[in-house]
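Usage

Read records sequentially. Each one opens with the input sequence:
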Amino acid sequence: VLSHRNLVANAKHSLIALGYTGEHRYLHAAPMFHAADGLSNYALTWVGGCHVIIPAFAPDMWSATVESEHVTHAVLVPTMINMVLNDPATADRDLSSLQLLAYGGSPMPGELLRQSIEVLPCDFLQIYGMTEAGPVVSNLSPEDHRRGAAGEEPHATRLRSAGVPIVGVEAEVRRSDGTLAAVGEPGEIWVRGPNMMKGYWNRAEETAAAIDGDGWYHSGDAAYMDAEGYLYIVDRVKDMIVSGGENVYCAEVENAIYQHPAVLEAAVFGVPDEQWGECVHAAVVLKPGAVADQQAIVNRCRELIAGYKVPRSIEFHDEPLPKSGAGKLLKRELRKPHWDGHDRQVS
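and closes with the structure output:
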């Protein structure tokens, strides 16, 4: 539940991050209800800017609209940016009106960011946030992008970060006991500010677990903070996958997999994907004597959940899935081989 106060605060924060004026023209390429796009809804309207709307995102339509409508600002998730860069039509478009491209929803792979800066004639801004924050928490500035792309330190290192908390928002990294983590020490991101939600609709227990008595929201994202206050996200505490900017809750997918009569155990987690950032992957143990292949399980899932939540890949295990002494499934052991060599344990 986001109150009027929350939305007004977020609009102010978005104006600070995006620098909108009445002369700017913003292209809505994502659904307007989505947090990645919603940060501009109120902010741009506040200053009397122009909203340009297309019926759905397609890379050729996006670049054609930027050209024809002289778009100055846009927000895309990295998956969309990748599609724009790989669309043959992009090279033939005049995108010179574009001043700022903000991205969020999932972290930008380093190589994709470098390609984007080379191809698209504009500044870049990373937004880190969450629906509960309305959504802005932190941002990585255009200056950090420009100087980082040129190889200047510490800006080049900062390209791996989610930037610094935006003016008006408090963000800290806390240990599991609630104490403040040291510089460089991983912990959970806690957020507090006038932009934070009132709570989850009709979910009092979940609200109480997420927001403590001092107003801190426990984000579920694991990160560390450097000496200059830049946040570096390294893992996701909450059991959730972000694929192409869409949230996929692992428990929902696991519940669908368990609907197949041959399945004994299932664990769902995200694995690296060049196009989507992460894709949904499942580890499955079949019941003794039962027979099922990947397609059979995928087909069952398609009957129960949205297509983007269905596993893209499944690995079958002959032995029980790894568990702790308390019987808790150790997903980190299943996830680790897929993420070796990556800076982050989420995309």
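Summary fields computed downstream for this record:
- The two ends are 27 Å apart (CA to CA).
- Residues 4-18 form the longest helix (15 residues).
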